[in-house]
TrEMBL record:
The keyword Translocase applies. It holds the Pfam family E1-E2_ATPase. Residues 120-219 form the P-type ATPase A domain. One of its GO terms (molecular function) is metal ion binding. The keyword Transmembrane applies. Keywords: ATP-binding, Cell membrane, Membrane, Metal-binding, Nucleotide-binding, Translocase, Transmembrane, Transmembrane helix. The chain crosses the membrane at residues 12-34, 40-58, 65-82, 88-107, 235-253, 259-285, 575-594, 600-618. It is found in: Cell membrane. Its main location: membrane. One of its GO terms (cellular component) is plasma membrane. It comes from the Bacteria. This is Cation-translocating P-type ATPase.
Amino acid sequence: MNASLHQLRTSKWTVPGMAAALAVIAWLLIWSGMQWAGDAFMLASAAVAGIPIVVKAVRALRARVIAIDLLVAVAAIGAVFIQNYWEAAAVTTLFALGHALELATLAKTRAALGELIDHAPDIAIVERDGTEIETPATQVRVGETVIVKAGATVPVDGEVLAGEAAVNEASITGESIPAAKGPGDPVFAGTLQTGGYLRVRTDAIGGETTLARIIRRVEDAQDAKARTQQFMDRFSKWYTPGIILLALVTGLITGNVELALTLLVIGCPGALVISIPVAIVAGIGRGARRGVLIKGGEHLERAATIDVVALDKTGTLTEGRPQLTDVVPLDSRTSEDELLQLAARVELGSEHPLARPIVEAARERALDLTTANIAYAPVVGHGITAVLDGERVVVGKPELVAEELPGIDLALAKYEVERLGELGRTAMVVADHSGVRGVVAVADTVRADAAEAIAALHRRGVRRVVMLTGDRESVARAVATELGIDEVRAGLLPDDKLEAIRELQASGHRVAMVGDGVNDAPALATADTGVAMGAAGSGLAVETADIALMRDQLRHVADALGLARATVSVMRQNIAIALVTVVLLLAGVFAGGVTMSIGMLVHEISVLVVIVNAMRLLRYRTA
């Protein structure tokens, strides 16, 4: 019972509900001929709704702020003095109702944050001294082994040591399809293990988990103001005193106190004040549900102006994992398997990243990669030589082959290297004392969604998509042609990427840089909007990027920019609705026919329209 009374007292609907009930009783009494009793209930209605408004206005004045509440308070008190009790009750009740609607809407638009918090786990099962023990998730120690059974929420960030399971990571990435997890895979606190059994080594707990970082990020972002909102705040500091002065001058000139009081009510910029924050909170909340974290209103507003997107190639446009693409024998005595086996046996002695796909491909074909009696001699930047079974074998650039095995005819090999290079592949010549045996080539495979992602960026209004890469010009051009990228800048060091961003900005463009949040840090920091892709589990990316995409999917860059544009569009629509409402009401007052209560009713309707318009963002459709 006590809990119910407390909930009733603290509910945002209690004051407007009681005030409205008293007003209805007042009208019934007036219609029955009991004018004095009706007036008394009207005064009671105005007092119930008006006292909290007066209290807030006084508190604001003590802080040297002239708030909207002051306009309503003065108008209501003035209406009581001129015995217009109905106007006093109507104005205060409608204002209280509008305030309750604002609170309810902001609570709904912040639902994404509430959902994230609900995902935070409370209990963990920890393996200690061979025994499974239940303990609060915050008391798990880094390095301990946590058991996650089917249907349980993962309580920590960590790495799977053993077991296999499907894990729903929607709370982190926004992806509803469960991800398969096995030994070596990362798991995140707050995700749901939908089937299987996992033993997880703890890497982070409590406030250090990815979920906790996301919650902090969304909290900070929803409180951060956009530049437009900052302008509106400064505007309202002058607007409210201006309305008070206009009402005072009008009353003195016309001698019509009711007209002056009506102007105070009509001038309330309620819809104007809520128009920006409700859109920002809704937009950022919607993004959080979809795994798109936007740092705040200012960054959201800036992202809406982006017309050039710069992307790193490796790991962004491509998978970042080179694979063997071609095995081309150039000797009639050599088969594909023999050529690959020879190249792989030599590449076993190399630590170069391009050696791995050759060796892995040979192992997949179950080729013999015996390393006995092999002496390796890597040549940095050119390839590797080896003495294999007493014979010298070279795998690398044609120049290295010519130097190590002079007199060999390399004409056909050079042709193949150039041909494969034009296709975006890195080719290596394989040769021994008998001549060129063939060419093997590797390439970093393009992401499956990359072409559609680039097309989506163009559809979202991005004029140019620019690739910034440290790779060779031929490789970069081949990838760009395949994906429909507008401009390529190849052979760039990190500082060169930074200068490329500055050059684009100097040309008058608003530039977004897309990278992993670490390797491309200088360019990401310099760009108008830095977008970190695949930020799940990366504390640095979540905390520092202007926009962090929790999923490692390029198409969500277009989604993020589209959401920013939609949010800014709603902000502008809301401002227009609010300003037009005020102008029309002011005109109506001076023309006659708009009373205090009608003005407040129209104001609250405009507030409701602004709220509903902003809530459309909660249903924004992303790819």
